[in-house]
Amino acid sequence: xxxxxxxxxxxxxxxxxxxxxxxxxxxxxxxxxxxxxxxxxxxxxxxxxxxxxxxxxxxxxxxxxxxxxxxxxxxxxxxxxxxxxxxxxxxxx
Length: 93
Fold this sequence. Notes:
It is globular and about 35 Å long. The mean pLDDT is 90. The two termini are 23 Å apart. It is built from one helix and six strands, in the order E-E-E-E-E-E-H. Strands 1, 2, 3, 4, 5 and 6 form a six-stranded antiparallel beta sheet that branches. The protein has one domain (4-91). It is of the alpha+beta class.
């Protein structure tokens, strides 16, 4: 079973409503390049997170609403950068 690093995203990724990114769960097993991004829609946390391929820097999962998907895609580079910075900090602690 993999261990996970939880990285807070709330308040670190600015987007327009209705999406708010809450946290990321990143496996510490470097053979697993996927993170799960937890988010809320209109203030309601969603049960399922979105899978983010850290190697390709793209979301595997998508949102049905075109406007929400556009917000997700626009936020992807910032999310990836926050995760990389947190992983580097963890590695050097």
